[in-house]
């Protein structure tokens, strides 16, 4: 019996048997991660959004071992100035990129101030199960020990990882992986500025290793009914506090707002003066959603404010800013009755 084997063919120079690295689109929008100050010791007096995406990537040469990068400069704004038209532009570009076979995931560099709102908006509207990961920085690119380069490397590492697929929109920050629904900014200065206070992070990323310790339960992305709409309904946020008047509510109703989210005290409780004004607003067809200013926990339906009688909706565990995002999308989709809106908040 002939036991000889054919000799292996040599690998041509410049070729490899390893599969190609994932292709990750990096979409830059500005923010502190792209900020610059004249003094490297200055982490507050800087100009946000002035460093371009190519310069951001050049500061992280290790990216070449993680993914093939396709950079785009979508905007160059301080995220405190984020607005709905840019949300629409960003979301539509993400959908376009992810619809192609050539892109395996997207990373968005963003400012920290409104990152949680943008992330949740995309979580509800992106129509793909491919990874979308937002990241940012608390120190400008010019600072000593800038945190942006490592956050960017970790975000690309997560976006390139198979376990990130189907998790919805994620936030990679300071070695942790958060769900867009849960994450909030909790510090004005610390590099560990983002947390998921109610149930914790999804997992972690460090030195190229990605580990998810739980999955996302609520509906998102492909399971979400929502799409980006250029005609955003006007929804505003008011706060309940000692001695608050109804002036703001009456002014908003007179201005024609479609919805109001109230940041209530405790379990979404509302000062009696404000509650009466909101009840009057609900009678005029304005959607009213109760959230809490506390920072964690959830607002129980029919708890402090007798929602059924007043026509109010509970935001559950969403903070006021994310509740506003969901309410805008729900109103744009035609959900106006309190019962229909409550089902939306219970679902997403």
Automatic annotation (TrEMBL):
Membrane-spanning intervals of the chain: none
Disordered as annotated region, ranges: 1-20
The keyword Hydrolase is annotated on this UniProt entry: yes
The keyword rRNA-binding belongs to this UniProt entry's keyword annotation: no
Chain ranges of the Asparaginase/glutaminase C-terminal domain: 234-345
Gene Ontology molecular function: any one: asparaginase activity
Catalytic center residues: 32, 32 (o-isoaspartyl threonine intermediate), 112
Residues holding substrate: 79, 112-113
Residue ranges of domain L-asparaginase N-terminal in the record: 23-215
CDD domains per UniProt: L-asparaginase_II
Keywords, comma-separated and alphabetical: Hydrolase
PROSITE patterns: ASN_GLN_ASE_1, ASN_GLN_ASE_2, ASN_GLN_ASE_3
Pfam families: Asparaginase, Asparaginase_C
InterPro entries assigned: AsnASE_II, Asp/glu_Ase-like_sf, Asparaginase/glutaminase-like, Asparaginase/glutaminase_AS1, Asparaginase/glutaminase_AS2, Asparaginase_C, L-asparaginase_C, L-asparaginase_N
Any one GO biological process: asparagine metabolic process
PANTHER family in UniProt: 60 KDA LYSOPHOSPHOLIPASE (PTHR11707:SF28), L-ASPARAGINASE (PTHR11707)
UniProt similarity note: Belongs to the asparaginase 1 family.
Name this polypeptide is given: Asparaginase
Species the sequence originates in: Paraburkholderia sprentiae WSM5005
Lineage of the species this protein comes from: Bacteria, Pseudomonadati, Pseudomonadota, Betaproteobacteria, Burkholderiales
């Amino acid at each position: 019996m002939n036991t000889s084997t054919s000799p292996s063919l040599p690998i041509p120079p410049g070729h490899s048997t390893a599969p190609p690295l994932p292709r990750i689109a990096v979409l830059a929008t500005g923010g502190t991660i792209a900020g610059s100050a004249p003094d490297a010791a200055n982490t507050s007096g800087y100009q946000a959004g002035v460093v371009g995406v190519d310069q951001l990537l050049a500061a992280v040469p290790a990216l070449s071992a993680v993914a093939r990068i396709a950079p785009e400069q979508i905007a160059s704004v301080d995220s405190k100035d984020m607005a709905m038209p840019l949300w629409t532009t960003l979301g539509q570009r993400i959908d376009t990129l992810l619809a192609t076979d050539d892109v395996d995931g997207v990373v968005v560099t963003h400012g920290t101030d409104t990152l949680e709102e943008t992330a949740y908006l995309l979580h509800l509207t992106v129509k793909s199960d491919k990874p979308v990961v937002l990241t940012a920085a608390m120190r400008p690119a010019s600072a000593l020990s800038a945190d942006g380069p490592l956050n960017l490397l970790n975000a690309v590492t997560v976006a390139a990882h198979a376990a990130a697929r189907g998790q919805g929109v994620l936030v990679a920050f300071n070695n942790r992986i958060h769900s867009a629904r849960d994450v909030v900014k909790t510090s004005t200065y610390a590099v560990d500025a983002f947390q998921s206070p109610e149930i914790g992070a999804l997992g972690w990323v460090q030195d190229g290793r990605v580990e998810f310790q739980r999955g996302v339960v609520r509906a998102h992305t492909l399971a979400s009914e929502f799409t980006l709409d250029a005609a955003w309904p006007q929804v505003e946020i008011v706060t309940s506090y000692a001695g608050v008047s109804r002036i703001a509510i009456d002014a908003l109703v007179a201005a024609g707002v479609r919805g109001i989210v109230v940041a209530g005290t405790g379990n979404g409780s509302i000062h009696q003066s404000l509650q009466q004004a909101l009840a009057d607003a609900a009678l005029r067809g304005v959607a009213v959603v109760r959230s809490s200013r506390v920072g964690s926990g959830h607002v129980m339906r029919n708890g402090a404010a007798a929602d059924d009688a007043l026509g109010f909706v509970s935001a559950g565990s969403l903070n006021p800013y994310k509740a506003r995002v969901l309410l805008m999308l729900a109103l744009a989709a035609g959900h106006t009755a309190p019962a229909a809106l409550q089902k939306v908040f219970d679902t997403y």
